[in-house]
């Protein structure tokens, strides 16, 4: 290369030759002497050797005669090389050795800069060879440049500006979320602050600012750059548990996160015990697993309807792609360019911004969820109020009904007391017994209805065949059917099965059949049909009796409703009400159909297929 005054920066990588010392035993004299012919030309703008235990030797020829009197510098911009040594030619034909690296105290550097800066001698009349020796336990990525004094100032200005914006954003996020944690008393914000602190510690280390400003005399700490990862990962896990609501919404995933936290604790102990570079490999593996795990977790939770996870997913999927490229670059599996070193910073900044926005989105989501719960609670309260009002009406109806029913036998009893032993007295006593029996039946039926309506657990359900139950009921009512000369047409198939409580289903069918017998005209026909629908079975029991008006069909299922005069009708107005309770508690439906007075009556029962 030939330096000239018209440029302030020159790429030097393409002009370098490379020699790899696999065992690290060669010294400078050997490399310069008998091994000089083994150097191979490099044709890439950046040099990447991945994780390697080899020593890398670089050689380049430089003619600085045209810039005599100017200051020029060789700058290696990758700040976390363990050892980098420049062998620069001197005027007497020898070589001057300058050692740097992040394993040495910061005061060993010739300039107060995070990058490795080597001053060069300008004004030599001919081309001279320079040698660079690099070794380290971590990934060896090289971005060497030649800068004039002006170029170095411009590079430093840009470098400070970019990283100043980066760390300024992190600092703003830390302060902002810390204030939110104090004001809202939500632990999720504290976990996010811990995550930000871990990101900051990690980047301060790999950017070289930690050694420059925080621990300049303790370079050993640079080997523990991965400690920032062990701050980030558990904080991220706790943040995700609270942000995604795993404990309440997805307990299985919550158990997975607890196992992940336990694994981190074990890995931390292992990593403290194993030497570099194996500790570096382990931390890299942990980063890959973490990004994959939380990308998958966010996507899964989002796909299951948790809308607040959308920005969480966007954060981790972009970060996953950037980290994937960064890891491939460090492993030398893709062509290395200097922008690869910035990918963790760009990814971290993206994640920080998106997760912070996600917290705001979560607040909006929780507000909507709270409003929805408030609306549901209000509707539930209104429904309970209506139910209580209906219960009060039912109690009033029941009291009126009982009072009315008690009045008649009481009058009979009073009349019977004034009679003698003649036939009229015997008839009165018979009426009293009839009233007594009706009262006993009314009380027992009412208790049965209230027991059914008030139970909190549904009955034990099983597979039932309606045909078998109907055949048994028809056999037990054969006398009543003959007495009214009724014909029954039963078309329920033997293969029809429903899911219900068998005893209660038989009771419902008995109520329907008794009503059909009671209200059918003599010599009429009762039709019973059954069919299977898509998910339900339908049973219809129809008679050709007196029917009901449209306004009466729903009232039939209200407690204590009796069509006609109470004194001339049998029953207590509770049979259909009990039937509805039993059918609905089995997961079915029941209703009545009628074309009008004297147009017949159909009771329709639908139950889940068995």
TrEMBL record:
Pfam families the record matches: 7TMR-DISM_7TM (PF07695), 7TMR-DISMED2 (PF07696), HATPase_c (PF02518)
CDD domains given in the database record: HisKA
PANTHER family: SENSOR HISTIDINE KINASE GLRK, TWO-COMPONENT HISTIDINE KINASE
GO molecular function: kinase activity
Listed InterPro entries: 7TMR_DISM_rcpt_extracell_dom1 (IPR011623), 7TMR_DISM_rcpt_extracell_dom2 (IPR011622), BphY/WalK/GraS-like (IPR050351), HATPase_C_sf (IPR036890), HATPase_dom (IPR003594), His_kinase_dom (IPR005467), HisK_dim/P_dom (IPR003661), HisK_dim/P_sf (IPR036097)
Coiled-coil regions, chain positions: 363-394
Protein name: histidine kinase
Keyword Hydrolase among UniProt keywords: no
Catalytic activity entry: ATP + protein L-histidine = ADP + protein N-phospho-L-histidine
Keyword Kinase included in the entry's annotation: yes
EC number: 2.7.13.3
TM helices/strands, residue ranges: 160-181, 188-204, 224-244, 256-274, 280-299, 311-331, 337-360
